[in-house]
């Protein structure tokens, strides 16, 4: 019947959409950063997120190239993966290796590098 086929098609599109949505969102470093990093690091990466008030040390200003030049990509990768404690930095910076893939962490490093403007 035509009607059943229509419903099936809508059903498949719906399920397909549900699958594709979180995957594509998860691959996009900008939405990852806005979703899980910005509470501390600030939406623009300046280290001024709402949860950063009262933190010592505060998250670095990712928009300041001089500050960011001090850390290699490897160092950024490691602190995101293993957390601040792993490199003798603030324990407030969480470890993300259980919730993010290596690819996602690499894309976040690239994204953070792209924030430095001055
Ligand atoms: C609960 C607050 C918090 C969250 C959430 C958080 N961070 Fe951090 N992060 C920090 C703090 C605090 C530091 C500073 C550590 C230090 O300098 O001792 C830091 C440091 C860093 C650094 C090293 C550069 C620097 O600031 O000195 C990178 C890179 C980084 N975070 C990336 C991320 C990414 C990517 C996410 C999201 C996946 C994230 N952080 C989520 C608090 C947070």
SSE inventory with pairings:
Elements: H1 2-27, H2 29-41, H3 65-69, H4 73-82, H5 102-115
Helix pairs in contact: 2-5, 4-5
Bound molecules: heme C.
Query: Shape from CA axes?
Result: elongated
Number of strands: 0
The helix/strand class is mainly alpha
Please trace the helix and strand order, writing H or E for each element. HHHHH
Provide structural commentary:
- This protein has 118 residues and is mainly alpha-helical.
- The protein has one domain (29-115): Orthogonal Bundle (Cytochrome Bc1 Complex, Chain D, domain 2), CATH 1.10.760.10.
- The chain is built from five helices and no strands.
- The protein has helices at residues 2-27, 29-41, 65-69, 73-82, 102-115.
- The site of heme C has 23 residues, from α2, α4 and α5.
Features:
118 residues; mainly alpha; Cytochrome Bc1 Complex, Chain D, domain 2; 5 helices; 58% helix; 0% strand; binds heme C
Quick gist of this model?
The chain has 118 residues and is mainly alpha-helical.
